Model the fold of this input.
Amino acid sequence: MSPRHVPAPRSRLPSMTGTIPTHWRTRVITLLARTLGQAIPTRSAPDPATIRRLIVIKPASLGDVILASPAVATLRRAFPNAYLTLATGQWSLPAARGIPGVDDIQDLGTFGTPGRFGVRDLPLAVARLRAGRHDLAIVLDRSPLVATAPLLAGIPHRAGIDSAGRGFAHTIRIPWTRRTHEADLYQSVAHAAASLSAEAPTASEAQLAFRPTPDATAIADRLWGDAGLDDRAGATRTAPVVVVHPGGASNPGMTLAAKRWPADRFATVIRTLIARGVRVVLVGHTSDAQIIADVRRALDPSGASPPPLPGTGIVDLSGDADLATLAALIGRADAYLGNDSVPLHLAVAMGTPAVAIYGPTDPRVYGPWGPEGGTYAGKGIAIVDPGACSQGRAFRPGPLDACPGCRCIDRVDTSTVTNAVLNLLGR
Done:
């Protein structure tokens, strides 16, 4: 049975964001959080038999929701009879709908979405959480406001991330440590909440998971077949297919252009792949239209805008797929290539070998994830220049670019990326 979706209410309170400079607001919140943390006691994990309803709170973003799927699997195993709700922001709902093991999906609206929420959203979130009558909340977010909501809602057991004291409202606090992969961090919270030891994880807990709907799979089958990529009967593929996503890095409240490898570099790699007998499928959201057009222009020496693609070994399916359909498309490919963005994590979840290019974000934290240190069974390759800013300091996202003027992703050369893709294809 598909999980039920509950929409978020609308706020009527005035906005309070932007009234205090960001750096001062951050300092005040951190100081206040640490003070409150001393007044709110921690406690041991609850007896699983007493947990009838639990809620996992992960407001943003699309990729991070997918990175939370192993933690959801852990909680499902630890609390097999509990009613499990996954609460996320409106932007991230498409990702939540594909996570297995969820009984209900709750729409948090803009609550917890960076750059889109503030104090005015808190009462609405508290009311919705209180109505759920949850026994346990798992908070996979660093925001002190998000941490406060389950406390004010009266949820007795609250487990979450404690970054710089901002998890003050949790009864079970998991300290954030630099360079810890996000999926591992979320798993740590789930294990602590369930009082599980570091035992060997089950198969579902050792991999990302996303299940496209039957309708999305049918649409992907049609798009794939109409493009002539292979016949609908599943005949042996005569040429490997690589799905390429040159865009991404766009979420509510922030567009991180510094995470995007240049369009002309993608075009260079695509040309080489085509010359080696590989077929390429371009994918992307409607917000990626410009960079897709830039890639297509770079592919055509005549300068057509954009150039025609028939007969080139390239298929452009950008703008044709929602998230679930995109996952189904990527799942049919022999390999995936893109930036640090949600389609990468979809590729991992669908079991497709993946190459991802990094600059200001650290692949040790956001890279292709799998068991044994995030190796993804040797099928995930993260490429980052050793001199990239992410390798020397923590990544701090902002409302515009991740690192103003930063283009350390440009240091990644095309030959390294091309060879990585060909190696995954065994060529």
User: Anything to note?
Assistant: The chain has two domains: 4-206, 214-425. The two ends are 42 Å apart (CA to CA). Confidence is low (pLDDT under 50) at residues 9-22, 397-402. Residues 214-425 form a domain with the Rossmann fold fold (CATH 3.40.50.2000).
